[in-house]
């Protein structure tokens, strides 16, 4: 009799513990996806963002929408000078994610010399733009993924005068890089800002209408930052040496004075 009572108590304890563990919420990570732009020589580049998805296992069956993405058309050329577009801010289960997919709709266009043209994006419309990230998300930690849309390398002029989008996008995890920001004076004309470290490819952006700039996703290191004003300004280029980028921090260069 005592053995049967003991067995019943043990089974009851086991099932209570099992049910309790099954009802526990999984650890989650906060995830933001933001869109920025390294612009090209166009009046506007309008991108129709429909969804943002993630993939945990590299397989085609592993894609899941991050949800709460409001479909919207973004002019990429407005996303400069520290301005970005928040595409999604949500919580997802912690763990590995291998890819992010940016899904575009049909309403994409480009403005060249005041003329609006359709922007063909066949691969994006069919399956979305697949971007490798390979990031292990730790529970309770916030991650920001910055999609740096490099317009000057992404627009193709076809032989018949039409335009196609073949995207070149850098994916940056904010926690794994730094940023360099500041402003230029005078700011009547747009200025190209370019940071170079050793033999690495330059990281480039442009000032906004207030003269502000921000270089996103700058790996830790020491950089030469060059400011190249529009030729019409009559201002001379300027290079600042020894600018440090620190992981997870924004290095503010203050105001850069340009002279003729």
Give a description of the structure.
With 260 residues, the protein is mainly β. The protein has 2 domains: 28-176; 177-259, Carboxypeptidase-like, regulatory domain (Immunoglobulin-like, Sandwich). It has 3 helices and 20 strands. Strands 2, 3, 4, 6, 7, 8, 9, 11 and 12 form a 9-stranded mixed sheet that branches. The protein has a 4-stranded mixed sheet with strand order 5-1-10-13. The longest helix is centred in the N-terminal third of the chain and has 22 residues, at 2-23. The model is unreliable at 1-26 (pLDDT under 50). InterPro entries: DUF4382. Residues 1-22 form the signal peptide. Keywords: Carboxypeptidase, Hydrolase, Protease, Signal. Residues 28-167 form the DUF4382 domain.
Produce the secondary structure layout.
Elements: H1 2-23, E1 28-38, E2 44-55, E3 63-65, E4 72-75, E5 85-93, E6 95-104, E7 109-112, E8 115-120, H2 122-127, E9 129-137, E10 142-150, H3 151-154, E11 155-157, E12 163-165, E13 169-173, E14 178-185, E15 191-196, E16 203-206, E17 212-218, E18 221-229, E19 238-245, E20 250-257
Parallel strand pairs: 1-10, 8-12, 14-20
Antiparallel strand pairs: 1-5, 2-3, 2-4, 2-6, 2-7, 6-9, 7-8, 10-13, 11-12, 14-17, 15-16, 15-18, 18-19
């Amino acid at each position: 009799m005592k053995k049967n009572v003991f067995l019943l108590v043990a089974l009851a304890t086991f099932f209570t513990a099992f049910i309790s563990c099954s009802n526990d919420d999984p650890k989650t990570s906060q995830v933001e996806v933001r869109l920025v732009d390294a612009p090209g020589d166009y009046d506007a580049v309008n991108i129709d963002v429909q969804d943002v998805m993630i993939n945990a296992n590299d397989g085609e069956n592993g894609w899941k929408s991050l949800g709460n993405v409001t479909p919207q058309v973004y002019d990429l050329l407005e996303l400069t000078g520290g301005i970005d577009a928040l595409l999604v801010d949500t919580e997802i289960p912690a763990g590995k994610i291998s890819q992010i997919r940016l899904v575009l709709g049909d309403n994409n266009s480009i403005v060249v010399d005041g003329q609006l043209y359709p922007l063909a994006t066949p691969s994006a419309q069919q399956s979305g733009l697949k971007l490798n990230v390979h990031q292990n998300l730790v529970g309770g930690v916030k991650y920001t993924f910055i999609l740096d849309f490099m317009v000057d390398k992404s627009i193709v002029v076809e032989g018949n005068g039409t335009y196609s989008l073949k995207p070149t996008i850098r994916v940056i995890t904010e926690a794994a890089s730094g940023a360099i920001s500041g402003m230029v004076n005078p700011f009547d004309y747009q200025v190209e800002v370019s940071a170079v470290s050793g033999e690495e490819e330059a990281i480039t952006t442009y000032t906004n209408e207030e003269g502000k700039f921000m270089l996103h996703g700058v790996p830790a290191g020491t950089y030469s930052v060059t400011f190249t004003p529009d030729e019409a300004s009559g201002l001379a280029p300027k290079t600042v040496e020894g600018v440090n980028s620190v992981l997870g921090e924004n290095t503010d260069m203050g105001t850069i004075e340009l002279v003729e």
